[in-house]
Amino acid sequence: MNLPLIRVLLLSLLLPLNATAASLLSSPRADQLLPGEQAFALLPVERAGKALTLTWNIAPGYYLYRERISVQVLAPAGLKPGALLLPPGIAHHDDHFGEVQIYRGLLQASLPLKTIAHTAVHLRIRFQGCADLGVCYPPQSVEQVVQP
What we know:
- The protein is α+β, with helices and mostly antiparallel strands and 148 residues long.
- It has a single domain, classed as Immunoglobulin-like (Sandwich).
- It contains 2 helices and 11 strands, in the order ααβββββββββββ.
């Protein structure tokens, strides 16, 4: 019996199993999920001329749904924004929502203002995302005040 050949064959069979086991061990589990505010970190909204810039820093292994992002101006009364301008998303098949667009990494959106607000602007920003594990977060709602 050729023992070195048998050892080589056994090692060649075990190495792929070890790589698979290692990848499973390094993947986050449901009990290792980030809190929503860390998974989908919304940075402070900034003024940019007659628009407001919204920026999310989406953690690796997480994504936001394009269709689940919205912004509402709470104050000042009478300030009417235009439509939220979002970049094209990444095509994604979702078991619950079907064909959707998602964002990963850094996302910037622009909210045009029809008039320049010379006072603070109070916003309610809503969004929803998931982890690649298949765990989706409930819709998030964040309020921010943008100073003049």
